[in-house]
Amino acid sequence: MLPDQVKERPIVIALEAHDAAAITGGTYDFGQLALQIDPAKIVSVCEFLKNSQQFIRLSAVTALDWYPVEPRFEIVYQLHSLERNERLRLKCRVNGENPEIDSVFSVWRGADWYEREIFDLFGVTFRNHPNMTRILMPDEWKGNPLRKDYPVHGYKYSYPNE
Amino acid sequence: MSDSKILRAGATLEPLTVNAPEEHVAERKLMTLNMGPQHPSTHGVLRVLIELDGETIVRAQPDIGYLHTGIEKQCETKTYQQVVPLTDRVDYLANLSNNLCYVLAVEKLLQLEMPPAVQWMRVMLTELTRINSHLVWLGTHALDIGAMTLFFYCFRERENILRIFEMFSGQRMMTSYFRIGGLALEPPRGWEKVVGKFIDGFSGNVDQYEDLLNNNPIWKRRTQGVGSVPLETLLDLGVTGPMIRAAGMAWDVRKSEPYSSYEKFDFRIPTLPDNDVWSRYRVRMEELRESAKIVKQALLGMPSGPWQADAPKVVLPEREKMKTQMEALIYHFKIVTEGFRVPPGEVFQVIESPRGEIGYYVVSDGTAKPYRIHMRTPSFGNLQALPAMIEGNLIADTIAAMGSMDFVLGDVDR
Fold this sequence. Notes:
The structure holds two protein chains of two kinds.
Chain A: H1 4-7, H2 10-18, E1 23-29, E2 32-37, H3 42-52, E3 57-65, E4 73-81, E5 86-94, E6 100-102, H4 111-122, E7 125-127
Parallel strand pairs in A: 2-5, 6-7
Antiparallel strand pairs in A: 1-2, 3-4, 4-5
Chain B: H1 3-6, H2 22-26, E1 31-35, E2 47-53, E3 56-63, H3 71-75, H4 80-88, H5 95-110, H6 116-145, H7 149-169, E4 178-179, E5 182-183, H8 191-213, H9 217-223, H10 231-236, H11 242-245, H12 253-256, H13 277-301, H14 319-324, H15 326-338, E6 345-353, E7 356-364, E8 372-376, H16 378-383, H17 386-390, H18 397-405, H19 409-413
Antiparallel strand pairs in B: 1-2, 2-3, 4-5, 6-7, 7-8
């Protein structure tokens, strides 16, 4: 159930009127609104927020790894509306086994590299992304460094021929 | 070597979008040019794969990651205060901006209120950082295009700023001067004089740079009308900072979401509608003047008072108190050995760096180490616009367009 101070926010009222089942939770801490969104509906929610609520900027996309809790990954979208001078955080929980979520590339082209970064460092695949390849680590790299079960120290050959 | 070998394994080629003649594509008259990662004008280790039809760029693919150091992973193994030096190394031209953003985020989680002197000192030093970064940009950008003299002038002034940083923190570049709960050290004696002397002469210096460039026909021809992208595309791609302001939008985080008492300073947001390399240069020159104005205001109105917050569980106690008070000794021991705990929660703190919007997303799970820190760095977002900026244009304009973006590869790859 949503806390009262989340429910009162105009953006939440608008979003509930659009699709009441999309929001599965939310917090309002330090003046920052964060909403849990049903991962199956992320693209339609983002389209609604961009096209009719002026959230024309996607500031960043990142992920959290709550290992060993399931659903393990949390994809975090930092939205920004210049017109309303307001920021909004959307979060989607994704299962640890074969993690997949729809790409929001079709909504904001800026999501391109951020989603590739998550694919690279967390191993979450984004469906319908035009170029789902590693971006920071070498292509031959095994493993996803920002996962919590990935070691911080150690040696690893990155080249298959060595 | 075939084209597909040159491209990174797994990189799929998107269909051609720019108007290369059909027969050229069919007859494979396109040439793939590998630029970087050691090209001097990429200012770091950026690699761009450029497909050329004659001298026109048909497609450009930036390839990043050569400077990836895993700072975000490293942050998760450090205590909150130990992360501050790591943030220096993200954007090595805007260290204090990164320090400030991280420190503000954690202070928000701890619900710490800073004394006015700390806030004003932070504003003054981040504005000096902005001047420093813009000077490096101006010097190297002009050098790329062929105006060599300016480089020496810019670095002459930059040296003075680095001396000021050294005076404050003991370090020229990796200052780590802002700490959670205040400043690292007490401001040095006589700093007002040094900063005042620098800032008084600075507006004359900006005039001098403009004298060299504004009426220079080569500079004008190389920059005017080059590298223009529609504002909607820039926003869609996540571009921030001076590039947005040079496209006519007056958006600055310092004004729209003021932090560290920026609302008390009088400055304006310079904008220009033309959206080319020239107007990005003009906007940054105006920003130099505005930053100098802010530094001057901070200098004249600097409030007196403590340079650290009254938070004994976070801030190290004074040496004198440690020798006389039991509590101070205990707090010192606790902070040094295990750090301080931060209540669970998450904060996305945004500030305006010289390059655009920095955002630190700090997640705490209640322990003394951050659970996750994501750095939304301006260069990463800005660099995504590179293909849109150079595709369809001449190869010779690439250097000017790339320079006008003012990216730092450490900031891109983290």
